[in-house]
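cache lookup: miss for this entity combination. No prior model stored, computing from scratch. Input as submitted by user K.M.:
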Amino acid sequence: SQTIHQWPATLVQPVGSPLSLECTVEGTSNPNLYWYRQAAGRGLQLLFYSVGIGQISSEVPQNLSASRPQDRQFILSSKKLLLSDSGFYLCAWSGQGYADTQYFGPGTRLTVL
Amino acid sequence: QKEVEQDPGPLSVPEGAIVSLNCTYSNSAFQYFMWYRQYSRKGPELLMYTYSSGNKEDGRFTAQVDKSSKYISLFIRDSQPSDSATYLCAMSIGNTPLVFGKGTRLSVIA
């Protein structure tokens, strides 16, 4: 069966510090991968998605970036965090078709102080 | 007009009630419809998936799609306190990522 992991589970970072969140998927090959942010009281905001290694599409221009160095690994990064980057970050995977159901990881709660 | 509209609630019902959760959408090209349940501080989990108009039942849950009215619903029968969560609708035209509603927060009171 497929499993999706995210770490760390929680993170408290000062403004201006760098960020690296990691997501890995087990039990499937060549998945579509997604990064979402969910701010308090708001819906899911799609940040990035990837259909393959090195292929990243950005949905929202901001100080975040994403990389996919391996087939089942997706990394979200920032060089300098802003207060507005606080939120709940979710990684998800789906099969090759966009209409395929997405399966979410447990999330990382980021607080920027 | 947003692509997907969902009343954020909160919705509070007594245990055993029938719950109706709804989403409307503006893009008639949407073909695939899903409902996710999200407990506090957890990732969303898939509840229901359908790609046609009509009803789909799974235990206490029924998903309903009315493409002519651009309206989808999730019904929960015999609601339980464990159903207390945020419910998100999601939809896709098939060649782009899912579009999510903002979620409806449900509380089932024992």
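stored under new cache key. Chain A has a mean pLDDT of 92.
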